[in-house]
Amino acid sequence: MDAEPAVAAVTGPDGGQARQISSDGMSTYVVGTWDAAAGDAAIQDTIERLQERFDGRFDVRFGGSEVVGNQVVNTVKRDLARAELFAFPLLAVLSLLVFRGVVAALLPLLLGGLNIAVATAGLRLVNEWTELSIFAMNLVSALGLGLAIDYTLLIVSRFRSELSQGHDPAAALRTTLNTAGRTVLLSAVTVGAAMACLFVFDQRFLDSMAVGGVLVAASGAVAALVILPALLAVLGSRVNAWSPRRWRQDLDGPDAAGPWQRVARAVVRRPVLPALVGTIALLVMAAPIAGVDFTTVSAKDVPSHLSARQVDDALALDFPANPREDVVVVAQGPAQSPAVEKLADRLAGLDDAAQVSPVLPLNADTSVLLVDPRHGGTDERSLDLVRTIRSYSTAELPVEVGGESANFVDLRASIEDRLPEATLLVVLATMVVLWLLTGSVLLPVLSVVLNTLTLAATYGVLVVIFQTGHLSGLLGFTPQHALDVTMPVLLFALVFGLSTDYGVFLLARIREFRESGLADREAVVLGVAFTGRIVTAAALLFCVALGALVTSEITFIKQLGLGTALGVMVDATVVRVLLVPSLLVLAGRATWWAPKPAKWLHERIGVSEGPLEPATMREGWS
Questions:
Q1: pTM of the model
Q2: Cα 257–263–265 angle (5° rounding)?
Q3: For the residues of 147-203, what is the DSSP string, one character each?
Q4: Section 557-564 average pLDDT
């Protein structure tokens, strides 16, 4: 290790560091300190070279934060291939059942693959200017496939519905783009805006997710509004080709929507009960949030068969102190100075410090001490230990604190500082989009409240699964008794954006019926009936695309996949089936109220799909 240019220093047990010898005296660890001038590429090359040199040596393992990063990257690449191998065949079968035709069923997979390819190319270009997290690839793969399926289902179902009413393909395509096309555009803007709010944070990981989310929403919109219409123009009525006669059923007509019409009528007939049941169900799901704890990515996220995890487990079990959890205290003073010695004595007297290393000189004017915390690196008591040590910094003896606990303190503080700004931006984006669609001032507020309930329910279920360890055997992860600290932020953007996405689908349809002259209650019933099958099918396919991430060997990616899938499914069922129709009926005409200035402005810049044709409204409905 000492011969590697990227390694600045190597410390072994021969230097009198008893803490580097295991309790049974049978093993030891050697610490390599990276050169501050070494870049990421040089460090990763060094890790690969050392691992290859000791390949096959079962008595030597490599660990540490940089090795964790190296093995996470390699694992994520394998996970992506496995997730796609799992998702595409299953989605092909489900698409066939949903679209009821081979040609139509191939379109979402074609658009999904194209969306992933274009967004990945965009990531590659952005990576020329700035470094991106490998996790952005997981997001692009899953979200790109899911959005393509949603948008394709919405546009193709509307196109086939127009064809079934006797319109020629050109007229059907025009109507589809003026209705479903505008809804898709608003949806893509909503998802892209929600993901763009992650740029508010300073973490490279969240910035990378923002880049991936914006790219995949933009490329998904282009694919759905440019490439898909071109394909439909070429296919025309052949979009229904290779469809068994018994499967030929209009996706957006009375036969398909009949069951959803009955459900909607039952909900609006007695709206108070479903509103209460839905709200209580979401609050019960959200209750575990009260006990949530947070952690950050570490070796425990790595599969147990990889060396970084094995080294971390050995350090925790076999050695008197785990160097990964050391609180590193750097004092701007000579090692033998009275001020530094006094600092060492103060550190040794702290209740949450198990032991303190001797003062080590970094140079003539700088000293370092290693404090072994009595509790885990992200335990709240270890975080308080960091804050206490930082309070010892004075003008005469400046003190800096690093290490796992200090990193977590700074990460959490940074996220908490920026969270209100990001929340405000996401909420404003959601409300502006829904106002442009509906012209109402109440509906955007109602949507924000329902999205918040959906998000809270999602967090609650994740706490039960990943923090308490339920289903850990089934899902294949080691419980860390906490959620990753960036997960609430990432899920906030994703679930909020996708919930608004499905809200746009439903509210656009309700508004169509209302502007066609139907009473408010009937417009709600028919809006739910017309979109029920589409939204449910889209949510199911989306959950498969996102749920494929649960097959990842990285715990954090499991949380991302399962959390997003849960949020989508809760929104498409409890919220869209029970809460939205019941609350719209209870609000009555106030749902669509807006002050005169807002009405005037909406008439000029709002997004309107126009009323439905009378034949479309009447056909097959009683």
A1: 0.86
A2: 100
A3: HHHHHHHHHHHHHHHHHHTT--HHHHHHHHIIIIIHHHHHHHHHHHHHHHGGGGS--
A4: 91
